[in-house]
Design a protein that fits this description.
Helix content: 25-40%
Strand order of the largest sheet: 1-7-6-4-5
CATH superfamily of the largest domain: Thiolase/Chalcone synthase
Radius of gyration: 19 Å
CATH topology of the largest domain: Peroxisomal Thiolase, Chain A, domain 1
Number of domains: 2
Distance between the termini: 22 Å
CATH architecture of the largest domain: 3-Layer(aba) Sandwich
């Protein structure tokens, strides 16, 4: 019997209507369009506006679009996994809210928190349920409302992040297509360099934590850049070597959209030309767990059956990982 693999059989994305441009950020903090583009590659980002709207409201739009696009009924879904760093609530999970809003009833659902590597982690976990034969249809979502934890008085972070969501459908495949291999890694020693200090059990919300602005994302840019360049490039090269792939064998690198320079360094390490690198950071910014599925959504028309894709990400924690996918759509 042929090996069962988890194939991506559908992809859909969603970004909010409101666009925050570099020109608008120039009025909020001491920065300018040239500085932002030269250091990050970002020209604009989408922001979710509206009282009481959370990550789930974007994610459910991606999921509904995915169901419609793949002609899948909500009752056919066996499991939903949501990768997010910005859940609607501490509990219940955002995944359960998405299921309720999408009409997906009485199935397993849970969140995965691995920061910007979340979608890589969620794909890896979801694929196991398919490969064992446990489930037939799984939705994996990557979604974040980063604007909820961004300090718009901090020019080092507010220029980086945007809001968005992407979702994929995983189904069994025995023809050699799907997720071929994955590698996930972490190092908790990276916590001081990229984190949100307050809001969890170690530092619960108080007047003091609010006054000290500790409920926003903090990043030590130079340190994170150094670790990200090395780790994301290394893990992408590792999964290629493990599966005997050369640069010419890779149709597309699908990198986490954190910084154009990090993406370029990863492509160089893989010996992949920039013409084979998916990049939409210029219009979405860093949407954390949503960057990779949004890339797949944007580039879907360019993907061909049998294409070798390398997905790679690096995030707070630190976390990082890569997935080798043979495209089967």
């Amino acid at each position: 019997m042929s090996q069962i693999r988890a194939a991506v059989t559908g992809i859909h994305g969603y970004v909010p209507d409101y666009v925050l441009t570099n020109a608008e950020l120039e009025k909020m903090v001491e920065t300018n369009d040239e500085w932002i583009i030269s250091r990050t590659g970002i020209k604009e980002r989408h922001i979710l506006k509206g009282e009481g709207l959370g990550t789930s409201h974007m994610a459910v739009e991606a999921v509904k679009g995915l169901l419609e696009k793949t002609h899948t009924r909500p009752e056919e879904i066996d499991l939903l996994i949501c990768a997010t760093t910005t859940p609607d609530y501490i509990f219940p999970s955002t995944a359960t809210l998405i299921c309720d809003m999408a009409g997906i009833k009485s199935v397993g659902s849970f969140d995965i928190q691995a920061a910007c590597s979340g979608f890589i982690y969620a794909l890896t976990v979801g694929s196991q349920f398919i490969e064992t034969g446990k489930y037939k249809k799984i939705i994996v979502v990557g979604a974040d409302k980063m604007s909820a934890i961004v300090d718009y008085t901090d020019r080092t972070t507010c220029v980086l992040f945007g809001d968005g969501a992407g979702a994929v459908l995983l189904e069994p495949n025995t023809d050699g297509f799907g997720i071929i291999d994955s590698i996930i890694k972490s190092d908790g020693a990276g916590q001081p360099y990229l984190h949100q200090k307050a809001g969890g059990s170690r530092y619960p919300p108080t007047h003091e934590t609010i006054d000290k602005r500790q409920h926003f994302a903090y990043q030590d840019g130079p340190s994170v850049f150094k670790f990200a360049v090395t780790s994301m490039a290394d893990v992408a090269a590792e999964i290629m070597e493990k599966n005997h792939l050369k640069g010419d064998d890779v149709a597309w690198l699908v990198p986490h959209q954190a910084n154009k320079r990090i993406i370029s360094a990863t492509a160089k390490r893989m010996d992949v030309g920039m013409d084979k690198v998916m990049m939409n950071i210029q219009k979405y910014g860093n949407t954390t767990a949503a960057t990779i599925p949004l890339c797949l959504w944007d580039y879907e028309a360019k993907l061909k059956k049998g294409d070798n894709l390398i997905l790679a990400a690096f995030g707070g924690g630190f976390t990082w990982g890569a997935v080798y996918v043979k495209w089967g759509c």
